[in-house]
Design a protein that fits this description.
Number of strands: 20
Largest sheet: 6 strands, antiparallel, barrel
Number of domains: 3
Distance between the termini: 34 Å
Number of helices: 7
CATH topology of the largest domain: Rossmann fold
Order of helices and strands: HEEEEHEHHEEEHEHEEEEEEEEHEEE
Helix content: 10-25%
Strand order of the largest sheet: 15-18-17-16-19-20
Shape: globular
Structural class: alpha+beta
CATH architecture of the largest domain: 3-Layer(aba) Sandwich
Low-confidence stretches: 35-94, 371-397
Radius of gyration: 23 Å
Mean pLDDT: 82
């Protein structure tokens, strides 16, 4: 539970269907006064100073499950958040919602308010150290390499559907399924023996892109109650049940502010055109991304864009819009979901090269270089989340270490600003075929 309307309604719907529901929120922002070391972008885990504690062991002021009262659905929610007993609604004025930032404590209080209102226990798992070491360090190291990362996709695979569940187990929470408020669907296909990730019914709300790095094991334990619903329907349910977050707006990004505050200060370097001519100076490559037009500080008679970032020489290259057009690119660390590919056999598909890009017709040629990283491999850990659920063996028994782990992509039509570091997600109709990082 994030404290938003989607996860709140998801919890409510599952409780109505007869599930025994426990609300869980992950704390990823260090408490005020807590300082992190080891966050220079090296990719090594950060280390909390003074209050360094194991994952999941710190619950701050939030009561443990066994001590948290669980009122009925008809019981009024606590009014301490807004101080308005007549409205009992969350006031969001002046706040830009995000996953990571100074408002995280308030988000947790809001999630707890919803849990009390619908009558379920609630627990907080502290993953601030792990988030620093796995997501923020990745974020910094990618920018240092001249790439533009999508931390949310990686966070889902590694933290939310990974370490959060480990933290729950350490707190003694026993469960069979892990449910979220994502707009997506999952089902098992007998013919292929695979768990499929599908788009949401409402195309404008589809979040399958952000779940595209989940393994077969993770998908087999996942429930997405909102996958068949529209946002209008979800909001209506929240209002009809007087959820305290029914009017709360949506989160817009992973960080509420200028992302450069999360990065170490970069080194100045040259801005060049594609012929190598120096046109100006930049104040750090982390301030630029492929396709960027504003803030270049270069006078020109026409529009100029960042077309390439070369970390080795600390150089930003700029050019015209035509220089941004790409027809061929490579993807690494491929996560295969819908079916297992054949080496050297091209696959006709559609690809999204970033979350808001259209689906582009393409041909994906699978290649093999080495084993995938453990988090993307889909290897089975029988003691994992919801270990009591019966799962067809063929659904998760494939040896993914021999699968193609990278691929060559050819677009039928060139597209603008295919950006290294972004996640490319491949679709076959409404089904997610695979996903990988653009090289």
């Amino acid at each position: 539970m994030s404290g938003g309307v989607d996860s709140s309604v998801a919890a409510l719907l599952l409780k109505r269907e007869g599930y025994e529901v426990i609300g869980v929120t992950m704390k990823i922002t260090p408490e005020k006064g807590q300082r992190l070391e080891g966050s220079s972008g090296s990719g090594q885990p950060g280390r909390l100073k003074e209050e360094d504690t194991p994952a999941g062991s710190k619950t701050s002021q939030y009561p443990p499950v066994e001590k948290l009262s669980a009122p009925t659905l008809e019981s009024p929610p606590p009014s301490s958040i807004t101080g308005d007993d007549s409205a009992n609604k969350i006031s969001r004025a002046g706040r830009r919602l995000s996953c990571f930032g100074d408002d995280s404590e308030e988000e947790i209080r809001e999630a707890e308010a919803v849990a009390r209102h619908i009558g379920i226990p609630f627990q907080v798992v502290d993953l601030s150290r792990e988030y620093e070491g796995r997501i923020l360090s990745f974020f910094r190291s990618e920018y240092a390499r001249g790439r533009t990362p999508n931390p949310c996709v990686r966070c889902n695979a590694e933290i939310k559907f990974g370490l959060l569940l480990e933290g729950c187990r350490k707190l003694g929470l026993d469960y069979d399924y892990f449910a979220t408020g994502h707009y997506a669907r999952v089902r098992f296909e007998e013919q292929s023996g695979r768990w499929l990730l599908l788009k949401a019914r409402e195309a404008t709300k589809d979040q399958s892109y952000f779940l595209s790095l989940l393994s077969q094991e993770q998908l087999s334990r996942s429930l997405f109650p909102l996958g068949e619903m529209s946002k209008v329907e979800v909001r209506k349910i929240a209002r009809e049940n007087n959820l305290p977050v029914s009017e709360k707006e949506e989160s817009q990004d992973f960080y509420a502010g200028d992302y450069r505050k999360l990065l170490p200060k970069g080194k100045p370097g040259p801005i060049k055109d594609l012929s190598g001519k120096v046109l100006g100076q930049h104040d750090g490559i982390e301030n630029y991304t492929v396709g960027q037009r504003r803030g270049l500080g270069i006078a020109s008679g026409g529009r100029l864009y960042v077309v390439r970032i070369e970390a080795e020489t600390n150089t930003v290259y700029i050019g015209e819009e035509k220089d941004l057009m790409t027809q061929k690119f490579k993807v690494d660390n491929l996560n295969w979901i819908a079916r297992l590919p054949e080496f050297g056999k091209g696959i006709e598909a559609r690809v999204k090269v970033r979350h808001k890009s259209p689906e582009l017709e393409c041909r994906l040629l699978p290649r093999k270089s080495g084993p995938q990283s453990e988090i993307l491999s889909g290897k089975v850990e029988r003691g994992g989340a919801g270990a009591g659920r019966a799962i067809p063996e063929k659904a998760i028994s494939a040896d993914v270490s021999v699968l193609p782990d990278w691929g060559e992509v050819t677009l039928l039509t060139p597209y603008k600003a295919v950006t290294p570091g972004q996640v490319a997600v491949f679709y076959e109709g409404e089904v997610v075929l695979a996903a990988g990082f653009i090289r």
